[in-house]
UniProtKB/TrEMBL annotation:
Pfam families: FMN_red. It comes from Streptomyces cremeus. This is Flavodoxin family protein. Residues 1-148 form the NADPH-dependent FMN reductase-like domain. InterPro entries: Flavoprotein-like_sf, FMN_Rdtase-like_dom.
Length: 199
């Protein structure tokens, strides 16, 4: 079982990132279930704007897409900015739009059979709205979602605490992150054994 975690923080490496922190915690839960996890901070790569598979010279998306196609699970992590997913996350969704034109020999999207999950962090409310946006976009381009396919943390409104600065992980977040991993891996295994029918 292979997991690709695309972290859509606006902060390039090695700057600390709450999105990266919670994505790493989710990755540890996946590893406990025997999955291999690769984490990519998208902002460190020159992903060009557009909705094509390859937007030309220097575009980093084709290499990231190959990693996505090789994975069973896509974990998409984003901060909340102004009540929305980050611009980096939106760009990933826009690039995934090209998958709507790609099919296998049986007429299925290449993303069929792949499972997606979401990580959201912020210091304002909005995790349900952001996860709903991502769920719809990921499902539109062919990914399947398990129950409990999001883990999130949002701090008190109008305060400056970041998730990465907490002394301990809240039990509710730890439990939700564990459930995300268990259900997502379970669904991915089922789909590996019983693929979707020809379209």
């Amino acid at each position: 079982m292979r997991v690709l975690s695309l972290v859509c923080t606006l902060s390039p490496s090695p700057k600390p990132s709450s999105s990266m922190h919670l994505a790493h915690q989710a990755g540890e839960e996946f590893r406990k279930l025997g999955a291999q996890v690769e984490t990519v901070r998208v902002v460190d790569h020159d992903v060009h704007p557009g909705v094509g598979l390859d937007m030309g010279e220097g575009d980093a998306w084709p290499a990231l897409r190959e990693k996505m196609l090789a994975a069973d699970i896509l974990l998409l992590a984003t901060p909340i900015w102004l009540g929305h997913p980050s611009s980096v996350c939106q760009r990933v969704l826009e690039r995934l739009d090209a998958e709507l034109s790609e099919q296998d020999a049986q007429g299925r999207l290449l993303t069929y059979g792949k499972v997606a999950a979401v990580v959201v962090v912020g210091n304002e409310d909005g995790a349900h709205k952001v996860s709903a946006d991502l769920f719809q976009g990921l499902n539109d381009v062919g990914f399947t979602l398990a129950p409990g396919a999001v883990t999130y943390w949002v701090g008190e409104a109008m305060q400056g605490t970041d998730y990465q600065d907490l002394d301990t992980t809240p039990e509710a977040v730890a439990s939700t992150t564990h459930t995300l991993a268990v259900n997502t891996v379970h669904l991915a295994r089922l789909l590996n054994e019983r693929p979707y029918p020809a379209s």
